[in-house]
Structures are given as C-alpha cells and as structure tokens.
C-alpha cells in the first residue's frame, strides 16, 4: 500500500525533483569519465568500438535503482522499501518476475478447477448414483431394532375362566445411600405391605450401600401403595410376568414359565408355539442421528386368541381338597385323581398331591413339580383285571357266564399265587371274579389263551408305549420282552392280576375308557384349541382317530360286571344311591430294587365309570404308599366324592330305576 504524508502530492513531486537532479549530476559525471577514457584510447592508438556512448539510459535512474533493489532477496527488498517509505513504479514488468507469477497463477487455478471437478463428482455420486443406498443406510442408523414385548396368549379353561395371563409387575430395590429416613423406619413402613418381619427387612437394608433387591412380582396396586409413602431410596423396576389366578388348582396341567417367559412344564411348555404371538418387529428412532422416519413407526394390534383347555377349573378346585384329605388320612406318600370324557379323551381334571403354586414355582421341591400321573410308573394290580377279562372275551377264550374254581391258592411253574386274603371263593363266574377280585380266578381265565396271543393283545392295547397325551415328560410303560413273557408261565400268570408290568396312571385311565365308550382306544388330551373372543376356532389339535380294540358287546359286558363290584363287591365305598356306577379296586405290592416285592409298601387305586346306562366319565384315583388299607378303603371313597362333585357340576341326573 502506497505511503503518503500530510502534504500529499506536493511532497511526492518535490521528492522526485530531488531524485532527478541527483540523477542528472551522476549522468554528467559518467559522461565526463567516458570522454576522458576515449581521449586516452585515442592517444594510445586504440579504436573506438562505437561512435556512441556504451551506456544508454532509456529509463530514469530511479527505475534503475528499483530494478537493482528487486534483484535482492525478497526479505531485504521488503525491509528496504519499508525503511525508505518509497514505492517504486516501473512502467515495464521485469521478465524475472513475470514468468514465476504466471506459472503460480496457472498452477493455483488448475488446482482449484481440479478440486472443483472432484467435488462435483462426489456430489453427483452422493446425490444421484448412491442416493437410495445412502438413504437406506441413514434409516438403518436412525432405527434401533429391539425385540418387542409381546405378551403370551392367555390360557382359559372350558368355561373361559382365565388360568394364565401376562400382567405388569414390579421388582422393589433399595438404595440405602439415598435414604432420608432410618433403616428401621423404612423397614417398619414396608413390613406390613410386603408381609415380612421388620427385623428381617432391617437386616436386609443394612446388607449393602445400594441395589438391594427386596422383592419381586409386586402387583401394580401394591407398588402404588408403597410409592404413596414417598420413601426416598426405593426403586421400582417394571417388567411383565405370567400370572396364574387359580394358583395351584391347575398347576399340573397349565405348568409354568421361567423368568424369561419360556414354558417349563405343562401346557405352557408343550404348546409354546400356540401361546406365542407373532407380530411385526418394533423399531425405535434415534432423533440425535436423524429425523424421525415415519416408516419406523410400527403399530401393531395383538390378536384376541386364547388357548382353551378341556380342563374344568371348578372341578380342579373342588377335587384337590378331597385328594389332600384322603392322602393325609392314610399317611400316604402322594396321590393323583383324573377325570376324562370317555367319548373323545378330553381331560376334565388332573390333580396331584403334593403340588405347587406356579406363581412361585421356584419355592417348590422337585417332587412337587413332577406330574407323576404321567412321569412315574406303577403296577396297577386288580384295576387291570377288567381289561384282561375283555381280552379273554374278545378272543373267545371265555364267555360271560364261564365259571372257575378258586381254592384260594395255586402254584404256577413252582410259584405260589393266592388271593389277597388267602381264602378261596370256590366255584365263581367271571362277574364274581371281578367283584371279589380273585387272583386265582383271573389266572384260570388267562390260562384259556396262549401266552403268545395274550402278549399280542397287550401290545395292541399300547402297553409299553405312552398314552400320547399333550403334556410333556410322559414316559412309556414297561412290558417284558416277548421271549420272557412267552418263555415263563409265571409271567402271564402275574400279568393276569395286574402285576409284572408297569404303566402310568394316565395310561391306565386311557385303558379303562375303552370299557366305557364301546371299546375305542382314545388319546387323552387337555387342549381344545385356539379360539377368539367370539368362540370361533382358529386352530385345533390334530388328534389320532379313536382305535377300535374291543367290540361294543365285549365292553358292555365287562361294564356290567364292574357295576356289580360297586353294588356288592370290593368297590362299595364308591356307591352313590340313585346312580349306576361301574368300578374296580386295585391293591398292588410295590416292587423293590432287588427285583422282588415289598411286604409293606403298596399302591392303592380305584377306577369308576358313570353313568353306566350312558357312560360319559371315567374317574381314577391312585394313592401311593398309604399306611395300611386297600383300594376299596383308601381310593374308592375319594372317587365317590369326586363323582358327587362331577354330578353336581355337570348336572348328571339319577338313573331311572326299574
């Protein structure tokens, strides 16, 4: 930038005048020196190379000085200019400066143009070529997929009473470092709500500085009650949990889920797929990464389907105390009661004792969690005698009026076989053999057919297999091999009165149903299907069709013989005035680990069918290891009470007596 003083142009003109005068004086001095040198050359004989002076000054001396200054290094030149305060003005740019400046200018513009082209190419690539791809990447970054909380479908009974449903619950945590009240005061406030001793809560509150879990599965009402106390340092963690309103009354059938909501037993496990809802994934949008993407707003509607069972929760609730009382009365180890519709195998009731509360399954022992009506085997004893009679009648080995002599004890292949009381009944017919539960009479009946044919029938009836019930963990029955059975006469003899093989209670229930439904082997089941709120089915289990194993005539004949057992035989403990009931008692010795039988441990049972005139229900009670008693004394009264409950619930009218 040009420097000027306060006098403006006048000062600049004066300065140039001084400079021109100095230049003129220097020029004259140079000319004089040149003339002197030429004269000396002439005197010495030298020849001038030019008639004109060697130096020609086409520019002012000031320009010459400026050119000389430009040849100096840039820094000194700049300092020189700043010190002199004079800016030179050259009318012709120097070649040494013009050439580098032009090169630099071209280089800079080339770089700028190239950069601009690269930038435009990138913009084109981003905005046009990869536009869709980048938009999708942006949406992916904005959306954070997360597994949606989808409640399991509810489980209902045959009357649509809720048996299992998801509900919001809370876990309660304490952070003592945030307390404003004393630990003792807080424990005093919480104890009546949590139903825990104050001392226990105080000890727990002192167990750490923070994050102390006090309880789980608090209901919304209970959590709200605690929140209204405004206690600093308490935290509620919300989550969902499976709730079983009927508690233990349906535990054996419904089962339970774990903390992750996965079925672990019962229907909850066996029908996991039907209980899970499948919906569209829910996505959350991160607004810090990008604007809300409307496509990420997934809305969904839960279906109203529910898994409907064949179980009657009313029957379950009323039968349980009956079973508990019977087991307790006889000091037994355990017991089970089942009720099935003989027409299609629908299970109306399955109650075990001991049992558990599915809401707090983690407090139960393994014995209580086991559904032993499916998972354990027992030797049925005399309740299997009607099945053997049906086999003998169906094959023609005997007739309904056939009779046999019972001396009280016989020997088969050297092994003694006798009646429970060791007494004989003399000449008795088939109905009396069932009624008085004669072991000797049953051995004589089954001796009328070959062991091989007998074994074929046992296989045909499914002994050694499962009942195919739609509940988990059922184990198959145990039957000796054909070689063992056919090769030893005592095997067929012991099987004749229900020992020497093992089945589960549910398999026995299935076999007894064949005598009530005209000889059909049905598959027991607990699930009716998936239904909506208007009772329209959306899915139903594909059950195997009933398999005819006995003729209706055979089944009818045996059923009449079993009715005589209740009227005048060992099953009189199940008699209900005004109703025709068929039944059979069972008392079997328990096998030991060494292969023999215990002298004291027994299994008692009773099976009842009603009404005989139009069979609809079969009821089985099994009581394991009672202290004394027999099937007629221990199990028959339990079945009687259950049938009385069933009559009231189902409205079964009394028989029309002739």
TrEMBL record:
Q: Where is the composition biased (Basic residues)?
A: 1-13
Per the UniProt entry, what are the Gene Ontology biological process annotations, in alphabetical order?
A: cell wall organization
Main localization is membrane
Q: Where is the composition biased (Polar residues)?
A: 20-30, 85-95
Q: Where is the composition biased (Basic and acidic residues)?
A: 31-44
**Where in this protein does the record put region Disordered?**
1-95
Instruction: Please state where this protein is localized.
Output: Membrane
Q: Which residues form the Penicillin-binding protein dimerisation domain?
A: 151-260
Q: Which GO terms describe its cellular component?
A: plasma membrane
Q: Which residue ranges does UniProt annotate as crossing the membrane?
A: 105-124
Write out the entry's keywords from A to Z: Membrane, Transmembrane, Transmembrane helix
Q: Which residues form the Penicillin-binding protein transpeptidase domain?
A: 335-644
Q: Pfam families in the record, alphabetically?
A: PBP_dimer, Transpeptidase
Methyltransferase as UniProt keyword: no
Give one GO molecular function term.
penicillin binding
- Entry similarity comment: Belongs to the transpeptidase family.
Q: What is this protein called?
A: Penicillin-binding protein 2
Species of the source: Zarconia navalis LEGE 11467
């Amino acid at each position: 930038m040009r420097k000027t003083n306060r006098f403006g142009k006048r000062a600049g003109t004066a300065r140039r005048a001084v400079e021109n005068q100095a230049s003129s004086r220097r020029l004259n001095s140079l000319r004089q020196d040149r003339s002197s040198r030429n004269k000396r050359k002439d005197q010495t004989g030298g020849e001038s190379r030019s008639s004109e002076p060697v130096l020609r000054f086409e520019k002012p001396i000031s320009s010459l000085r400026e050119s000389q200054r430009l040849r100096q290094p840039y820094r000194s030149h700049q300092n020189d200019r700043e010190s002199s305060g004079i800016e030179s003005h050259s009318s012709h740019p120097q070649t040494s400066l013009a050439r580098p400046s032009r090169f630099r200018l071209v280089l800079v513009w080339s770089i700028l143009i190239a950069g601009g082209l690269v930038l435009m190419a990138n913009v084109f690539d981003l905005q046009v070529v990869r536009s869709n791809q980048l938009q999708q990447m942006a949406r992916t970054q904005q959306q954070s997929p997360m597994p949606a909380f989808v409640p399991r479908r509810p489980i209902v009974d045959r009357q649509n009473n809720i048996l299992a449903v998801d509900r919001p619950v809370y876990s309660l945590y304490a952070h003592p470092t945030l307390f404003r009240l004393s630990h003792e005061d807080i424990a005093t406030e919480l104890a009546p709500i949590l139903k825990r001793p104050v001392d226990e809560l105080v000890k727990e509150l002192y167990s750490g500085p923070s994050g102390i879990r006090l309880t789980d599965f608090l209901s919304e009402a209970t959590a709200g009650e605690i929140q209204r106390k405004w206690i600093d340092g308490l935290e509620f963690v919300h989550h969902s949990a499976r709730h079983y309103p009927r508690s233990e009354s349906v535990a054996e059938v419904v089962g339970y889920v774990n903390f992750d909501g996965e079925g672990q037993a019962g229907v909850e496990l066996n029908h996991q797929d039907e209980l899970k809802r499948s919906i569209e994934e829910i996505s959350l949008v991160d607004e810090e990464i990008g604007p809300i993407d409307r496509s990420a707003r997934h809305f969904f509607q839960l279906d109203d389907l529910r898994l409907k069972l064949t179980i009657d929760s009313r029957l379950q609730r009323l039968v349980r105390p009956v079973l508990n009382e019977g087991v307790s009365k006889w000091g037994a180890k355990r017991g089970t009661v089942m009720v099935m519709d003989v027409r299609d195998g629908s299970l109306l009731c399955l109650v075990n004792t001991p049992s558990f509360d599915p809401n707090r399954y983690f407090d139960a022992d393994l014995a209580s969690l086991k559904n032993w009506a499916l998972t354990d085997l027992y030797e049925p004893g005399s309740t299997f005698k009607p099945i053997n009679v049906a086999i003998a009648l169906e094959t023609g080995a005997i007739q309904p009026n056939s009779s046999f002599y019972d001396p009280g004890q016989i020997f088969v292949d050297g092994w003694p076989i006798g009646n429970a009381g060791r007494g004989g009944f003399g000449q008795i017919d088939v109905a009396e053999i069932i009624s008085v539960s004669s072991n000797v009479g049953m051995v004589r009946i089954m001796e009328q057919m070959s062991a091989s044919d007998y074994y074929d029938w046992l296989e045909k009836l499914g002994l050694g297999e499962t009942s195919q019930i739609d509940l988990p963990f059922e184990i198959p029955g145990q039957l000796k091999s054909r070689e063992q059975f056919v090769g030893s006469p005592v095997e067929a003899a012991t099987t004749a009165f229900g020992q020497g093989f093992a089945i589960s209670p549910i398999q026995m229930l299935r076999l007894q149903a064949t005598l009530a439904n005209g000889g059909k082997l049905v598959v027991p089941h607990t699930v009716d299907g998936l239904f909506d709120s208007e009772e329209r089915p959306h899915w139903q289990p594909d059950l195997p069709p009933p398999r005819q194993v006995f003729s209706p005539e055979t089944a009818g004949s045996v059923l009449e013989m079993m009715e005589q057992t209740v009227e005048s035989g060992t099953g009189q403990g199940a008699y209900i005035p005004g109703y025709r009931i068929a039944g059979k008692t069972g008392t079997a010795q328990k096998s030991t680990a060494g292969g023999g039988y215990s002298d004291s441990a027994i299994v008692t049972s009773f099976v009842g069918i009603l009404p005989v005139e139009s069979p609809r229900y079969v009821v089985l009670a099994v009581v394991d290891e009672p202290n004394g008693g027999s099937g007629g004394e221990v199990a028959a009264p339990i079945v009687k009470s259950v049938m009385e409950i069933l009559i009231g619930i189902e409205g079964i009218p009394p028989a029309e007596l002739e």
